[in-house]
Specification:
Number of domains: 1
Number of helices: 14
Shape: globular
Strand content: 5-15%
Helix content: 25-40%
Largest sheet: 8 strands, mixed
CATH topology: Alkaline Phosphatase, subunit A
Distance between the termini: 50 Å
Structural class: alpha/beta
CATH class: Alpha Beta
Radius of gyration: 24 Å
CATH architecture: 3-Layer(aba) Sandwich
Number of strands: 15
């Protein structure tokens, strides 16, 4: 969607904008507070960013490719790439597929980014870890990618990190993704504040963080505070509330109402506001743009022009930057984003467009996704963490996990670059973090079959007879983030400072 508007429509758009706030359920949009949580010290907070690569992002089509010469005589019938398209980073460990020109027979989809750009900038912090998933069903595989196939009482890795590092934050766990990537975990004992806040529209989301600002004709702030004080006095004398004071539903209601007030005090409405000021005349409604708006639009120039993933990433970064969130999840939608000039920046169904055109779906979407991730990592490396306590850059405490559902089938019609692929259990993941031992591939791929194999989590050594599962990746992230739980697998061979 193009947010530029002419004068004729500007009043209508502004009215729609602020009425959307009135129609939103503020209470339902806010997380509550838990009690008795053994949280990490504020100075030790860590930040988790999950990139939900929906549709089956294949590691052998991105950062673990097989060259046709390595595959031998069968290379033409496998998903192996011409040798000229398989590049190796300067460090010698990370490989990647170069940009594939002309693979899109329709001429609709393209990306101006090259995976080599990402590798050249961030290879020292990059890890490729192999994995064999346990499902090729989209919904099931998505959920297992974030719960480690229920290795930690059914908690998602975002919930686990938010519980440890998000206590006291107004939106500890924020999720902009789609499908089962936004589903909560299955542990009913998880503190309410650690459950994910699902955000449908990142640009309009800041409006839901304040109960009165931006609403035309709303009472003055002082009057609202007086009304709230009277309400608390009356509630303290209410026989009903005294009788049912320990009812969980009432406790939860009070927790969420307190969280709403905490959001207002945090002024996230201003800090997260990335709507174009000129189009929406924010000053007319006592609103202002984020102090980092200019920088956000430099890094993500299409965030307000219809690119949903850029908007998600920008707002997600600001949530972490201002100390509002400890876990942020972003991801492209199965519905492609259209820019104002008609450019399509995603393929339909994202990576699952591989059923129709495997090379295009994998190459275009990996490039498109890593361009946005490059922007995120760049910001994390240059900006200080403004949350309570701690020093240094945001990157010093960050881990980025590209969550994939499963791989794609490994065979193709002999020699063809235009073919469809099915789902396959054999795959891997990309993680980027200074908390991990980067510039390395853990596990490997058999060039004769293009199937991945595992490694020893305690040492990091490749073991062709070993199978890595979702629980290994979950345990790796948990160990790096300081999350302990019964049954956590030893992944110390990949964690800096461990073992």
């Amino acid at each position: 969607m193009n947010y530029s508007v002419d004068a004729k429509h500007s009043r209508l758009k502004r009215r729609s904008l602020f009425h959307a706030l009135l129609g939103s359920s503020l209470a339902g949009a806010l997380a509550g507070r838990g009690s008795g949580l053994q949280a990490a010290p504020k100075t030790d907070r860590k930040l988790l960013f999950v990139v939900a690569a929906a549709g089956g992002a294949s590691i052998v089509d991105s950062f673990l490719p097989v060259a046709q010469s390595e595959a031998g005589a069968s290379g033409d019938a496998l998903v192996a790439y011409p040798d000229l398209l398989v590049k190796t980073a300067s460090g010698g460990a990370i490989r990647y597929v170069d940009s594939v020109a002309g693979s899109d027979s329709l001429g609709l989809f393209s990306s101006d980014y090259n995976l080599g750009t990402f590798v050249s900038r961030h290879e020292q912090d990059m890890l490729v870890v192999t994995q064999e998933t346990t499902s090729v069903n989209h919904v099931v595989a998505q959920k297992r990618a974030i719960t480690g196939a229920n290795i930690n009482r059914g908690r998602t890795i975002m919930e686990a990190v938010a519980e440890l590092h998000g206590a006291g934050l107004p939106l500890a766990n924020c999720n902009f993704a789609t499908g089962a990537y936004v589903e909560p975990g299955d542990d009913a004992t998880l503190p309410a504040f650690a459950r994910g806040e699902v955000v449908a529209d990142p640009l309009f989301f800041p409006l839901a963080t304040h109960g009165s600002r931006g609403v035309s004709g709303a009472p003055e702030r002082e009057l609202l505070l007086r009304a709230r004080a009277v309400r608390e006095t009356l509630e303290g004398k209410s026989p009903f509330l005294q009788r049912y004071a320990k009812a969980r539903m009432l406790e939860l209601f009070a927790e969420r109402r307190n969280a709403a007030e905490a959001l207002e005090k945090a002024d996230l409405l201003s800090k997260l506001m990335l709507l174009p000021t000129a189009d929406y005349q924010l000053s007319d409604y006592d609103l202002e743009s984020s102090p980092l708006l200019a920088r956000m639009t430099e890094v993500f120039p299409n965030l307000a022009k219809g690119d949903a993933l850029e908007a998600q990433t920008a707002v997600g970064f600001l949530l972490a930057h201002y100390g509002a969130s400890a876990a942020v999840t972003i991801g492209p939608s199965f519905v492609p984003s259209f820019l104002g000039d008609g450019t399509i920046v995603d393929t339909p169904l994202v990576f699952d467009y591989s059923h129709t055109d495997h090379i295009t779906a994998q190459n275009v979407n990996w490039r498109r996704m890593m361009k946005v991730v490059d922007g995120l990592v760049t910001l994390l490396k240059e900006e200080d963490y403004l949350g309570d306590g701690g020093e240094g850059k945001m990157w010093d405490r960050s881990l980025l996990y590209v969550a994939t559902e499963f791989g794609r089938s490994k065979t193709r019609p002999s020699g063809s670059l235009k073919f469809g692929s099915g789902h396959d259990l054999s795959n891997g993941n990309l993680l980027v973090s200074p908390l991990l031992k980067g510039n390395k591939v853990y596990g490997g791929v058999d060039p004769k079959t293009v199937l991945t194999y595992g490694f020893d989590g305690a040492t990091g050594e490749a073991k062709p007879d070993t199978v890595m599962r979702e629980g290994h990746v979950y345990s790796l992230i948990a160990q790096a983030m300081g999350v302990s739980f019964e049954g956590r697998l030893d992944m110390s061979g990949l964690v800096r400072g461990a073992g």
